Amino acid sequence: MDSQFSFDGPRERGLVLVATPIGNLEDISARALRVLGEADVILAEDTRRTRQLLAHFQISGPRLVSYHEHNRIQREPDVLNWLKEGKLVALVTDAGMPAISDPGADLVRLARNVGAPVTVVPGPSAALAALVISGLPTDRFVFLGFLPRSGRAREEEIARLAGYPETIILYEAPHRVIRTVRDLARVLGNRRAAAVRELTKRYEQVVRGTLGELIGWLEGEEPKGEWVLIVEGAVSALNEHHMFGEGGSSGEDDMNRWCEEVTRQVAEGVSVRDAIRETAQRHRISRRALYQAYLKRAEGNG
After folding, report:
1. What is the pTM of this model?
2. 146 - beta bridge partners?
3. CA Rg, the chain, in Å?
4. Cα dihedral sign, 140-225-66-10
5. Which of 255, 250, 256 is nearest to 286 (CA)?
6. 244, pLDDT greater than 60
7. Which CATH number fits the domain 127-234, given the four candidates 3.30.360.10, 3.10.28.20, 3.30.950.10, 3.90.850.10?
8. Which GO molecular function, any one, fits this protein according to its record (predicted)?
């Protein structure tokens, strides 16, 4: 068990995670500027980018030290010594909130292990910014960062998403975004989604539609910039069907009807795989959930 009071008087102490702008420098907070100016050491994912940020706001006092995935093991002893000495250590990432898809989470644990307080200066987050402008449900969501790039790990992770009831948030690089949207559509069906890029910048863009529509749009574009993908969850897709479907039938009745559609197509000579895919895409439901229901129904009729 661990309990801490983050403040010693009015000021921060120990390790402070400081959110920085994700594009528009006007988004930085007054508190973030104060903490960066008061810090003894600033740990930065990319010192060049952080140096530009500090110079813009005329902050020149703190020592700037690189801290990222590839050097964190070598850097941690120095960081822990600074914390033990009572220094104020600020952690920033290239853009947004530290410890989200970067090694900051490990540093928080290590700081607490040596008794150093940890606090946060909240601020911009690409994941949350994209979620709230996507138009998709925001009451329950899951953030997964970047999917595995290839292989079985990628296939298993995407398959796992099929049953998630929460809205899904993913990051993706420009050269992989089309492939990722295709893979999501193939496994999850033609769900509603949004693709967001250049958040808070001059060319901020939000594209809303179904996964199928996003594929068509991306194929005609040069997908520059880092992307945030927002995809509706399985329950959201099912609920939307209830809202516009026949007489508010139950989820079980709907699934039975969809299984009957698959059965009819199979009787007409369509493969089970193609029938599942076509039916799931037409009704915007999880292909995996439909397949499992179809198998259960087939076993029961056997």
Report:
1. 0.77
2. 171
3. 24
4. negative
5. 255
6. no
7. 3.30.950.10
8. rRNA (cytosine-2'-O-)-methyltransferase activity
